[in-house]
Inverse folding.
């Protein structure tokens, strides 16, 4: 029944409703006519200056739209009744959400979807479409991948009521055939986000909500954090096999390590204008949209970084990207795919270097964790490490560095049988 649309110039509304700063009205969308010269009639919802438009499936000329409120013509009366039915459906959903204090366009879309046969699948698809429109491509691909797995297990039409504790346990078992517990946790958190919106929208009752204590609890596994020692890093950055490709990706990895463990998505978007007074200043894309306070990260441009820029960088102009990985003319999806491809190529080359040197599991993530861990080993203040990583609080950093390193565990294990020494 519904499909989000866009703002447009419109004649006066015919049906209107407002509650708790949410307005609902019927409008004629005169932005673009159909092939037959008519314009679509939509239900407009306005909340906090944002507007969404929902189709009624009807269309009219501006002249007939003006005549519609008082029309005696049978055809126009039937159109008016159909429009009122669509309006009433949206109005009822908005009114229910506003009364609960839970109004959002996500919950409205879910509630309307349920009223017209919506499923968990359609909720995922609506979420994916919204993320694409917001150009949050990484999160969009994350939800898209999970939807594929959800449908491989549950089919193309999964009712919200089907997602029970038992269903989640069976889905977990299905995933564990070829995925680890960390991946399972990611899947379950995405499903929980969809179910949270469904609960807010009134699609499921609290008693039907499957997550939480004494229900399905999402397990959080400790990921194995790999960090290199300074000696290993020295071996890596001085390694050469005489091939330009090896040296290029080795140097980009080294730059990521030196630039506060920057990730590939932020690396490719660095421009020369980000270099201010000898520091690279940037905001992590990962947190840019998800935190109220935007944290700027500053990384000193070391002589090693200057050498890498001089060798592999673009011409030094303020609006030029430092490294020629993207051009800026690509859309958000294309940039994301190019970034993923670059990450893959760096990881492949670093794996080769690691295998040659006998160092296991070097990747772009290793650069970030090594940056933080080298500082930790050197006695750097955790508040400084937290700020340089772009974390929002010290707890995040403490969790990030929580696992003892293997060398520390080996040293402590040896103490347990150190019988020849006095304690």
């Amino acid at each position: 029944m519904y499909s989000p649309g866009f703002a447009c110039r419109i004649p006066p509304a015919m049906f209107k409703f407002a509650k708790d700063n949410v307005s609902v009205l019927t409008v004629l969308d005169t932005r673009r006519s159909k092939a037959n010269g008519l314009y679509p009639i939509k239900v407009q919802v306005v909340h906090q200056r944002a507007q969404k438009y929902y189709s009624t499936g009807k269309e009219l000329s501006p002249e007939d739209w003006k005549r519609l409120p008082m029309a005696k013509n049978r055809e126009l009366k039937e159109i008016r009744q159909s429009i009122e039915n669509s309006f009433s459906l949206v109005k009822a959903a908005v009114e229910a959400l506003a009364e609960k204090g839970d109004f959002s366009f996500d919950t409205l879309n879910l509630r309307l979807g349920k009223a017209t046969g919506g499923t968990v699948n359609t909720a995922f698809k609506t979420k994916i479409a919204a993320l694409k429109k917001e150009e949050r491509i990484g999160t969009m691909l994350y939800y898209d991948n999970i939807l594929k797995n959800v449908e491989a297990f549950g089919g193309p039409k999964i009712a919200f009521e089907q997602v029970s504790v038992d269903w989640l346990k069976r889905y977990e078992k299905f995933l564990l055939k070829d995925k680890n517990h960390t991946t399972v946790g990611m899947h379950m958190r995405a499903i929980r986000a969809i179910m949270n919106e469904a609960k807010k929208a009134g699609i499921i009752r609290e008693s039907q909500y499957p997550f939480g204590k004494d229900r399905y609890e999402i397990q959080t596994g400790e990921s194995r954090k790999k960090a290199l020692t300074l000696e290993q890093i020295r071996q890596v950055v001085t390694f050469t096999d005489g091939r330009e490709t090896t040296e290029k990706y080795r140097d980009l990895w080294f730059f990521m390590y030196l630039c506060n463990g920057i990730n590939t998505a932020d690396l490719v978007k660095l421009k020369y204008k980000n270099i201010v007074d000898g520091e690279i200043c940037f905001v992590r894309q990962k947190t840019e949209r998800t935190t109220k306070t935007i944290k700027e990260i500053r990384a000193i441009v070391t002589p090693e970084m200057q050498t890498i820029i001089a060798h592999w960088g673009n011409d030094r102009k303020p609006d030029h990207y430092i490294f020629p990985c993207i051009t800026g003319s690509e859309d958000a999806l294309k940039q994301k795919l190019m970034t993923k491809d670059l990450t893959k190529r760096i990881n492949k080359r670093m794996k080769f270097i690691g295998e040659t040197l006998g160092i296991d599991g070097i990747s772009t993530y290793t650069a970030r964790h090594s940056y933080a861990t080298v500082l930790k080993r050197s006695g750097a203040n955790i508040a400084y490490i937290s700020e340089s990583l772009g974390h929002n609080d010290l707890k995040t950093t403490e969790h990030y560095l929580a696992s003892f390193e293997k060398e520390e565990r080996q040293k402590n294990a040896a103490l347990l049988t150190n019988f020849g020494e006095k304690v």
About this structure: DSSP finds 17 helices and seven strands in the chain. The chain has three domains: 16-100, 115-208, 230-410. The first strand starts at residue 16 and ends at 19.
